Amino acid sequence: MTAQILLTGGAGFIGSHTYVVLIEAGYDVVILDDFSNAEVCVPDRLEQLTGKPVQVMKADVSDAKALNAVFAAHCFDAVVHFAARKSVPQSLASPEAFFSSNITALLTLLEAMERHHVKRIVYSSSATVYGAPEALPIPEHAPLSYTNPYGLSKLMGEQYLNQKTRSKRGWAAGILRYFNPAGAHPSGLIGEAPLSNGGNLMPLVAQVAKGELPCVHIYGRDYGTHDGTGIRDYIHVCDLAQGHVQSLNLLLQQGRSHTVNLGKGRGYSVLDVIKTYENVSGQQIAYRFKPRRAGDVAASFSDPSMAAAVLGFEARHNLLEMCQSSWRWETTGRMGLHRPAAFIPDHFPAAPAQHLQL
Ligand SMILES: NC(=O)c1ccc[n+]([C@@H]2O[C@H](COP(=O)([O-])OP(=O)(O)OC[C@H]3O[C@@H](n4cnc5c(N)ncnc54)[C@H](O)[C@@H]3O)[C@@H](O)[C@H]2O)c1
């Protein structure tokens, strides 16, 4: 029998790409999204891509009534939980709203799952739970910490899930720590089109390439990296989506909880990204150096060996493919869609990393 999956936040950037691979893998998927950070045309695009009608419910995950209704109407085997707020600057500006979206909503979801006997969940975590890493590459057993309310919300989410799976019989969770998702579906039909800008680098670079922003601000030019700019582990969103299928397969087939990094295992600098995007787009991309931001680290990249061992996961696409697919999306599928006002904070305050004993 086909397993049925509830995909919260399935109209968003990573959720929409994951929807496509879940359908390709034979899952029956229902999307629940409040469209607070997604285009209303996404379900139509997903229908175009999969050739199947999209089952979608517009609702807030913290709305217990709506959740009960969707659980009662279906017979879910598992939940893949993407719905959350993700902008670090916005989390600093209004932490309460973040905790409500990212923590209260998760607890409401877990209650609904419990009530309807659904005990498998894949959770979107983030490399932000490593705070300022002490060593590279970062393995899953590295110390956990946070430097902003967003990071704290992801860490708390992980802890709730660990508590649940340890204390409640039959529960299993796949906690996936994403590094830096980038790129878009090769069709150019779906990609990163947030209504509010989360501050990710590639969409900003794309906006400069399209002449919609004057320049990219680069925070720090004197890090101990090959060109002085910060290094991050970019992972193609289609690879990331595939990781969710592998996590779900493990949960459903073996009921085995796992916490793994999803990254490529190597880093690229801000200038590497800009230069590659220039080559792909044929546009010159202006940039301006700014002082380092508090809380930023020189380099962050994953040790991907646990994901390989536990899930058989490997991120296959390289930076060139991420830039090519992003540019295709920016110049085709994204044309005419709502464009967010760029959010480029000059000051990026952050608390010192809080190391936690877990
Ligand atoms: N994109 C990244 O750089 C990144 C990195 C690490 C982790 N993550 C995590 O991955 C998940 C997905 O990220 P994304 O980049 O696809 O973000 P996104 O904003 O594009 O997608 C989130 C989706 O959830 C929906 N949503 C938000 N709050 C909701 C709520 N309360 N009820 C129902 N729907 C709601 C939004 O409308 C949107 O469609 C998030 O949990 C995020 O924290 C993202």
Task: Kindly describe this structure.
The structure is a single chain. The chain is of the alpha/beta class and 358 residues long. It folds into 2 domains: 4-181 and 234-262, 3-Layer(aba) Sandwich (Rossmann fold); 184-233 and 265-300 and 316-344, Alpha-Beta Complex (UDP-galactose 4-epimerase, domain 1). The protein is 38% helix and 18% strand. It has helices at 13-24, 42-50, 64-73, 88-93, 95-115, 149-167, 201-209, 237-254, 270-281, 305-311, 319-331, and strands spanning 4-8, 28-33, 55-58, 78-81, 120-126, 144-146, 172-178, 180-182, 216-219, 231-232, 234-236, 258-262, 268-269, 287-290, 299-300, 354-356. Helix 7 runs parallel beside helix 9. The structure holds nicotinamide-adenine-dinucleotide. The site of nicotinamide-adenine-dinucleotide (NAD) has 28 residues, from helix 1, helix 5 and strand 5.
Could you report the average pLDDT, rounded to the nearest whole number?
A: 92
Pattern of helices and strands: EHEHEHEHHEEHEEHEEEHEEHEEHHE
CATH architecture term of the largest domain: 3-Layer(aba) Sandwich
Unique bound compounds: nicotinamide-adenine-dinucleotide
| CATH H-level homologous superfamily name of the largest domain | NAD(P)-binding Rossmann-like Domain
* End-to-end C-alpha gap: 39 Å
Tally of alpha and pi helices = 11
What's the β-strand tally? 16
What share of residues are in beta strands? 15-25%
Shape: globular
Helix content: 25-40%
Please identify the structural class as seen in this structure: alpha/beta
Rounded to an integer in angstroms, the radius of gyration calculated over CA atoms is 19 Å
Number of domains: 2
Q: Could you give the order of strands across the largest sheet? A: 3-2-1-4-5-7-12
The name of the CATH topology of the largest domain is: Rossmann fold
